[in-house]
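Box 4.2: Ligand-aware structure prediction
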Amino acid sequence: MKFYDFGDSITADTEFVIFGIPWDYLSSKDHVNSSIAPQTIREVTEDLALTTEMGVEIPSLKVVDIGNVSIDPTNIERNLNEIKDFIKAIYNQKKEIIPVMIGGDHFCTFPVVKSICNEFTAEDNIGVLIFDAHLDLYDEWDKGVYSHATVSHRIYDLDHFNKNNLLIVGTRDIDIPEMKIATEEGITHFDAFLFSDLGSKNLSKDIVDFFRNSQIKSLYVSIDIDVLDPSIAPGTGYAIPGGLSYRELWQLLRLLAKNFKIIGCDLVEVSPNLDAPNKMTSNLAAKLLIEFISFISNYY
Ligand SMILES: [Mn+2]
């Protein structure tokens, strides 16, 4: 089953390439199964309507779904190489293309961002926006430097990445050592409560201004599903109250697509075994991805 039944091979007019990373070994919870989320999120699209909220016909979008990266659950170095080669092969087929990754736990974002950064030069001045209830800023977590709780740290440590171009939005479950790292390293986070304190419109403007001020030329967007309120996205390992609404995130994605050149995105941490029987979290994930793809396709 492909995402919205899109084709599976990259052609000259392909604009977006969807792929899954079925890997949750680097989550710190063992009762999650985000490794099956790429398949579950594809499957729910079979029952979803074929227009976006703003009336765009989904089959007209220039998307392909090339399947999953081959993963060996516990072999981290092997998987990092597989992911690198997988993304390299995408760009070898078409240079101007937008990778859209479905995870997997949040660590999956790191090798994707790293590989995408390798395709650009320092002048491209890439920004990274992470939507997350957490900072994921630990230097090391239970399995070492590679963990879903260290992903933001690994990203700001990347060569050629300017840590002033990293913004984390929707945070509301921050550990003391992470707060210390954020302060010392100057990592900016806009906490979830600011959406109600300042109002969504004002905070959205602050987010756009953040990236305008850092003069990014291109933007990668990572969505940890736990940025949303658990009342609407229960299927995830860490259900933290006070999250964003679907509409707040939808409006923000629309605004980002309008203002910046989006070079890649992902959606991670959906855990189908923790979802409601009607698969509401997977539906939400599928909707968010296709809506964002339509915005990036200039339908906003
Ligand atoms: Mn996360």
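In the box above, the bound molecule is manganese (II) ion. The two ends are 28 Å apart (CA to CA).
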